[in-house]
Amino acid sequence: MTRTGLTLRDWEDGRLDSRSLLRFVRGLGPDSAFFRASRPDDAETAMWLDGRAVCAILADLIDTVNGVGMALAYKGTGKHVPKTEPYRRPWRQPERMHYGRDAIPIQDFNDWYYGGGR
Q1: Full 3-state SS string of 33-95
Q2: What are the two backbone dihedrals, phi and then psi, of residue 101, each rounded to the nearest 5 degrees?
Q3: Within 10 Å of residue 112's Cβ, how many Cβ atoms?
Q4: Model-level pTM?
């Protein structure tokens, strides 16, 4: 719709008829948010078409190649192979540990440690 310069406001105002709007919605491809929301069973298909799966596979491939390259570089040296830095994945949030701010009072320690089961 943005190519035509029309928006849903034009449909509300009556400048865009319902048939044209319905034709547009039915013609949305599997990479659109509407397709993913209306067909949750086809989410895997949409993931392949919009490139998310390809990006994840390429990131895993880069990590594998870096690991093999590091192992080959250290082969025969007798040294321990250092762990390689994983390729940055912008779609994945970094895992952060939250330890809390204050110490646990001694009277609450058993409940905290045993999960409240004692």
Answers
A1: HHHHHHCHHHHHHHHHHCCHHHHHHHHHHHHHHHHHHHHHHHCCCCCCCCCCCCCCCCCCCCC
A2: -105, -40
A3: 11
A4: 0.46
The token pair at 92 is 């994945």
pLDDT at 66: 94
Ordered by start, the domain boundaries in the chain are 1-47, 51-89
Q: Tell me if residue 99 falls in helix, strand or coil.
A: coil
Residues 47 and 36: their CA atoms lie apart, in Å, by 9
| CA distances for 16 relative to 10, 20, 35, angstroms | 6, 7, 22
Per-residue pLDDT tens for 54-93?
888 899 999 999 999 999 999 999 899 998 999 988 877 7
Residues 6+ positions from 10 with CB-CB distance below 8 Å: 16
The mean predicted confidence, pLDDT, of the chain is 80
